[in-house]
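User: Teach me something about this protein's shape.
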Amino acid sequence: MPTFLYARVSTTEQNLDHQVTQAQAAGFQIDEIIADHGVSGVNTTLAERPQGKRLFDKLRAGDILVVRWIDRLGRNYQDVTDVVREFLRKGVVIRTVINSMTFDGSTKDPIQQAVRDSLLSFLAAMSEAQAEVTKEAQKAGIAAARGDDQKYRGKKPSYDRPTFNFVRDHLAFGSGPSSIAKLSGLSRQTVLRIKLNPSHAEASLQKWGL
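Assistant: First, the predicted structure itself:
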């Protein structure tokens, strides 16, 4: 059965190349890439996205759907849980690049189903909550960029936005600074600074137009 990579690309999230590279580095052999560009995971359901609609038509029992993380399918709790459960009912296997999680739609054991569905609900809720945190951090960054300190932007960050998002996502799901530093190529101190003050990191990116 084929393996599909679905990517959602917006102006403030990781680009398509980055998501594909991450999936390949994690050992996935991708048969087909399906990507939506410039769409919000909060305001636009998967079924409303041009390429998201294709997933409902293409996926069959036994197919593997790879996503960088559950939030690529959406940032709205209800939409994400509904979509994933529909795919699982069809027998699709969903795998994440971050943390290598697997949601198997073929399992018939009620205990395994209960554990799987509980974890899914938790992750979907975290995706929506994280979207709200990110929105507030972006607002803080924009406000700082427009403030009196705009004349002096400070030192240019040693990371770009895709790397910042990579660090932020891994921190949100429990990875340690040392392991994140090794994966991202940043120093441990840089990862710690992002962890301790994500709003300041967001502001620096805004100031430098990154």
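Now, about its shape. The chain has a mean pLDDT of 81. The two ends are 39 Å apart (CA to CA). If you'd like, I can walk through any region in more detail.
User: That's plenty for now, thanks!
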